[in-house]
Each structure stands twice: as structure tokens, then as C-alpha cells.
Amino acid sequence: MSVSPLLSLRDVKVHFPIRTGFIRRRITSFIRAVNGVSFDIEKGETLGLVGESGCGKTTAAKAILGLEKTAAGEITFDGRNIAGLRGENLRMIYKDLQVIYQDPYASLNPRMTVLQIVTEPLACFDVMNARERQARAEELLETVGLDPRYIRRYPHEFSGGQRQRIGIARALALNPSLIICDEPVSALDVSIRAQIINLLEDLQNKYHFSYLFIAHDLSVVRHISNRVAVMYLGKIVEIADSKDIYASPAHPYTKALLSAIPIPDPEVEAKRRRIILTGDVPGPDSEIPGCAFASRCPVKIDRCEKESPALREIASGHSASCFLA
């Protein structure tokens, strides 16, 4: 008997209308930010979602959280279709679904103390009394590597890495089953990134929740993810086990991304071949009859210009949307 995934997306689309006219009533076209995305996240798993800036990663996460309205598709969380939920029904989902934001400077309220920030989820859902919430906050600060004595301080009194730890503590407050990490280390110093990634791994091993880990740094994703999904112009172009996708990428876009990862060995770095993509990126409002990557692909064939390749399984657990895969 198969166990259903914790989170499942099926052909999810998020389109933003482009309006014209004096009072902007006339819709001329749509920006297809997410254009038919499908993937699963199992319980206790980390799925890395990678791609260039503007490819739709964060918009897909917002659709899961109900912060962006889906134009089509189904989002199933813990056996329940949550696409289109609003009001109290959506609010109750947040007990099991939390977020760690990209910018630790902007994601914390500067007028709130650490105690208020970390216990805010508990207060929103009326969990525990005031004394129990403070004890829970102190426990969480210790868990993420901060001194509980800092509980009365304000965000401006902490470094970027410490602020991100506070954000992680807040995400853990309600014991969620899924945490969406929206580029949680991209705004941090390189010296701090490894500490935060190791902390996230340790917390997952301890509490057994799942991550959707959004990033554009493939070396970070490789370290933390069980599986990796590569996104390009609103679509998943390849998804596979982390080891497989780095050892034998199938899609030309994935190969180009991996070739851009610097290797610390200068001799190996000097010998390997970089894939430099040429051509123009189609506009997000363009209706492309063929493959969206065809304008930049170094190995395209005539079929790519006329027909859009479906995401198909090319090996066990490895899928790619390329005719040549």
C-alpha cells in the first residue's frame, strides 16, 4: 500500500493579467508566472526547487500558501485540496505549513521583541498561556543556537545570521509538517550560509518535517536536498534524485546551470567546459508554440520550435521535458 505524499501539485498555473486602457479594465494578455507545475513532496523529504530569478519559484510557493490565486490545477496538502481556500479554512492550514523567508532584515517586525516574534504563531492560534509561550520561545531559541537571554531584545540588535535563526525559531513554533524555505541563505554572508544549512538539516533530522527548499545556488541545493526540480519560465523541465541530477543531467538547461557551479580545484576548473547560453529569453507573456528553452538551447532540433515537450520519465525517478533526453 503506497503512502500519499505530504504535498502534491498537479498542473498548477498562476497567471497575472496585463491590463490596458484609461482605467485598466481591458485585459490584453497574461504573464504566465507558473504554467503547469507538477511535483510531490514526501513526508520527511527535502525537495530543492532551482532556476533563474523570475522563473516562477517563489510564485509557486505563494500559490501553495494561498497568497497567489491559482488559475488552474490542484494543490493537495496532507490529503486535502487547498487550492482556492480562503479565510478561516486557509488560516488553519498554516498550523502545519510555515515559511522561512529570504530576507532576515525584512521578515522580522522591528517593533517586536524576539519573544513576541517567536510566540506570535502561538498567540494567533491561541496555543498555550503566556508563561508556557515564553518557555516555548526560550526552548526554540536554544534549539536554533541562540541564547535565551536575548528574548527581550529587538531584531536590530542581531546580525543577519542571528535574525535568520529567529525566523527559523518562529517557523518551528507550531511543529509544522512542511516548511517552505524561500532562498533562506541567499541574503547571508558566505561564511554564515553553511551554518544555517547545517542547522536546517539538524532540525529536520530531529523533528522529521519536510522542506520545499527554493534557491538559485545549486551547490547549496545539492547539500540539503533529497530530490531536485529545475524550473524554467514557469515549468518544471527536470526532476530527479539529487545525486542523479548532478551526475547525469538530462535537460540542456540543467546542464548549463551545473556547468556554472565553480569547482575549488583550479586544474579541474580549467579543463571543464562551460556552457554559455546565447539567444533571448522569451517574455513571460509570450505564447510559445514549442519548447520555451528552444531560443537558447545549443542542441535544439526542428521539432523543438513547433511542439512543447512533456515532462516524461526517462529513468526510474528521473523525468525531463526534452525530446533528446
Can you tell me about this structure?
The structure is a single chain. With 325 residues, this protein is α/β, with parallel strands linked by helices. It is built from eleven helices and twelve strands. The strands form two sheets. It has an eight-stranded mixed β-sheet, with helices on both faces. The longest helix is centred in the middle third of the chain and has 18 residues, at 190-207. The mean pLDDT is 90.
Topology (elements, then pairings):
Blueprint: E1 7-20, E2 26-41, E3 46-50, H1 57-65, E4 72-77, E5 80-81, H2 87-93, E6 97-100, H3 114-124, H4 130-143, H5 160-172, E7 178-182, H6 190-207, E8 210-215, H7 218-224, E9 227-232, E10 235-241, H8 242-247, H9 252-259, H10 266-271, H11 302-306, E11 312-315, E12 318-320
Parallel strand pairs: 3-8, 3-9, 6-7, 7-8
Antiparallel strand pairs: 1-2, 1-4, 4-5, 9-10, 10-12, 11-12
Helix pairs in contact: 3-4, 3-5, 4-5, 5-6
